[in-house]
Amino acid sequence: MKIIKTTLSGCVVIEPAVHGDARGFFYESFNAARFAQAGLDLTFVQTNVSRSAQGVLRGLHYQWPHPQGKLVSVLEGEVYDVAVDIRVGSPTFGRWTAAILSADNKRHFWVPEGFAHGFAVLSENATFVYQCTAPYDRTTDAGVRWNDAALAIDWPIAEPLLSDKDQRTPFLADVPREKLPIYP
C-alpha cells in the first residue's frame, strides 16, 4: 500500500498493492492494521454505494455537527473526486484538492471529518463506494455550492447534471460559521 499526500493535510490518496495475472486481480481495499500503521486509525460504521451517469456531479457535501470521514473509491468507471477544507480556523480553509479515482487505477481517497466532498463522473457510468466513520444524519446534512467562485475548483465538467439539493446549496461565504466544522 502506498500513501500519497495531497496539498491538504489529512487528505491522502491510497494506492493498494494489486496482485494480478491472466485470471484477474486481487487487492485489499481496507486493512485496519495496515491503515493504522500508515497513520490512518479508522473505524467505519456505514458503507454506501452510488451509481451515476457521465456528467453527474454530486457535492459538495458534509455533515455538522456530526461529521463523517469518508474513504472513497470507484468500482466501475472514473470520477474526479474533490475535498474542500471548510474547517473554521484551519490554515487551509477554503482550499481544495482532487484525485482521479477509477476502476483501473484502484485508488482510494481519504476525506477526513471537517471537509466537504464531491465528485464528477468522467466515464459513461461510475459506481462509487463510500466507507464512512459516522452514520448519515439527515438533520446535520449540509453542502457548499459546487461552483463557488471563491473556491475556484477546476472541475473537468462545465455543465454538470445536479440534484435539486446541490443546485441550491449556499456559497461558502454564506454559510453561518456555527454551521461549519471547527479546526482542532
Fold and architecture overview:
The protein is mainly beta and 184 residues long. It has one domain: Jelly Rolls, CATH 2.60.120. The chain contains two helices and 13 strands; from the N terminus they run E-E-E-E-H-E-E-E-E-E-E-E-E-E-H. The strands form three sheets. It has a six-stranded antiparallel sheet with strand order 1-2-10-7-12-5, with no helix packed on it. A five-stranded antiparallel sheet has the order 9-8-11-6-13, with no helix packed on it. Strand 1 and strand 2 form a beta hairpin. The chain is globular and about 55 Å long. The chain starts with a strand and ends in a 16-residue tail after the last helix. 34% of the residues are buried. The mean pLDDT is 97.
| Binned strand content | 35-45%
CATH superfamily: Jelly Rolls
Spatial arrangement of strands, main beta sheet: 1-2-10-7-12-5
- CATH level-3 fold name: Jelly Rolls
Low-confidence stretches: none
CATH level 1 class label:
Mainly Beta
Radius of gyration: 16 Å
| Overall pLDDT confidence | 97
Q: What is the structural class? A: mainly beta
From the N-terminal CA to the C-terminal CA, the straight-line distance is 28 Å
The outline comes out as globular
Number of helices: 2
Question: What pattern of helices and strands is seen along the backbone?
Answer: EEEEHEEEEEEEEEH
The counted number of beta strands is: 13
Largest pleated sheet: 6 strands, antiparallel
CATH architectural grouping: Sandwich
Q: Helical proportion?
A: under 10%
Total number of distinct structural domains: 1
